[in-house]
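#onboarding

Welcome to the new folks! Below is a worked example of what a typical request in this channel looks like: someone posts a single protein sequence, and someone else replies with the predicted structure as tokens. Don't worry about understanding the tokens yet, we'll cover that in week two.

Example request:
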Amino acid sequence: MLILFFSPFPPIMCGIASYTSYLVRGMPADGWKVLSFDPHSYGSPVLKETPLQLEGKVSYSIPNPTCSPHTVYNRVAELADGVECLVWVQHAFGIWKDSSALCRILRYLHSRGCHIVVTHHTIHFQSGETAYGMTAEEYDLLRHELPVVDAITVFSRHVKEAVARAFPEHRDKVVVIRHGVPLHPNIPREKAREELLNHLLHEAPLHERDRGGLRELRDTFLNPDTKVIGGIGFINPLKGHEAVYSTGDRLQKKMPDRSILSLYMGQLRDPTNQTHLDCLRLMQGLHDGRRRLFINTYLPEEKLPAALKALDVNLLWREDCTQSGILSHAQGAGATVAGRDLEIMGETLRMRGYPACKTYGEFVASVEDILRDPKLEVSMAKTAGRYAEKFCWRNQAAKHLQLAESALEAPPNRHMFDEEKTLA
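Example response:
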């Protein structure tokens, strides 16, 4: 059996590419391949180097997500090379901007006898657009997709319930496999701050003006009495980056005896998107070089554990809360997180022992509680650590293999493997 993932993949720089690369690392080497997009025509930034040695495992032969279904099928057949194969599509609307193009591909693969699973990264269950909690766009995609696939996977039982309500005839095709967690080394905060600062000063491609500002703040940043809150990730207005600074301002007034730095680190993924460019300019305008810091840079994967652990609290107050790779990295690094009780993020925060807040005032208060009481951070780390072990990438990869086997072997109406059935 071969699982053929159809997904962006490094060196393409995006969350789904990173997700798929972590997933295959937990699988037997002979059990998977990846069909990906041409990094030069896909339209996203690319890493300088692919972090895995993947000769013969990854084909970057699809020019873009709107290419012909016939082209996709031919590439699938070439990679399968006669082995029984399951095509596993990673879906987010940021990748598949034209849902009709994806549906044409799925219908054609189905007509040629392919077994298909789709992982949905961004389905809502609290949207007001439909009676089922998903958006109208999501409903329309699933209406065309579900009849031609063997299964879909989602990250949340609430999303599963929303899809099952909307399409009860396909209830048995909807499966929960949660987002995997990378198990990073647990770095002490003092060491993490030193490692992050050294990277920014000596390795990151920063403007000399920004580097000079960081040198001036070195003692403040490394002082263990300084509280540093913030976030990391691509610049996107739906991620609520500016809340990092408003939260820091509020906390400084509430805690005048403490020095609080608000720090955001990230860069544009799509420099042609005007809305994202406007968000970048907003972040640059909020930077004051003293208490509000914005560092326009991409943090390499190997630097994420130190960067996340360097923050006393990682802030996730977002408009769009369907999923977060940064949340998983933070948990795997033993970092502390506070976020919004909305969609999948709210459900996941609660399962991981982090504050999930309904209102912004409640969110600010929860961050203040963490900064004032070190015992809260210790308690959260224990709960999050148990979750990380349970849902590490190795375990989640094994669940993908179980689902693939049941999809290939089961009669059409048999219940598929589902993670929810395995949870106590």
